[in-house]
């Protein structure tokens, strides 16, 4: 359909899982895509598969000089960044007795500061070109509610919703739309880690939690990365031109708002 024809997108955490599906969907809609990830080799492999309109960027979203360099490289190569997807993030579990300052800083540095400073890096170019832009941040259903032993992760994802709302209002006059997606349980490689953590904290067999959360979804199954990528196309396209400051739940009915 080429809904993103002529657009340039930068996707963090783009090498695998939801990020990979977004990169593939954007390419299918006509965009050029910069795949930014700590997993540099996987990003390079994906870029090679997608062709000349894809580039790989080795990027740590906690490294501000690296963020600036990545944005400058994309703008030098393709002249612009129209779409930013802040998908990079981490998940860990810890009871209140186990939380450390180091882990607190790590989760906030990646999930919150990474989102904020990626936006800071792309906004000047978007403003200078005067054509607006689309920024899509990744929250989670965990940002909508508390969950035991996940206070750090839940609070970082709630912060992403708040950042989305504030920056949407701040940037509206420049026609830069800022929205977020709050996925539910999505079947990605990350869920192997999540399942293992729940096995420890809830004394479950490996694989049990993953099966249970899928069965508990009102639609009856875990989502797939493509289920998130398509709404991400919509929020980047002109079809959503009158939508900003919103967080879209993509969770099979787990949360109602």
Automatic annotation (TrEMBL):
Pfam families: adh_short_C2 (PF13561). InterPro entries: KR_dom, NAD(P)-bd_dom_sf, Sc_DH/Rdtase_CS, SDR_fam. It comes from the Bacteria. Residues 7-184 form the Ketoreductase domain. SMART domains: PKS_KR. One of its GO terms (molecular function) is oxidoreductase activity, acting on the CH-OH group of donors, NAD or NADP as acceptor. Gene3D superfamilies: NAD(P)-binding Rossmann-like Domain. Belongs to the short-chain dehydrogenases/reductases (SDR) family. This is D-sorbitol dehydrogenase (Acceptor). It comes from Aliiruegeria haliotis. The lineage of its organism: Bacteria, Pseudomonadati, Pseudomonadota, Alphaproteobacteria, Rhodobacterales.
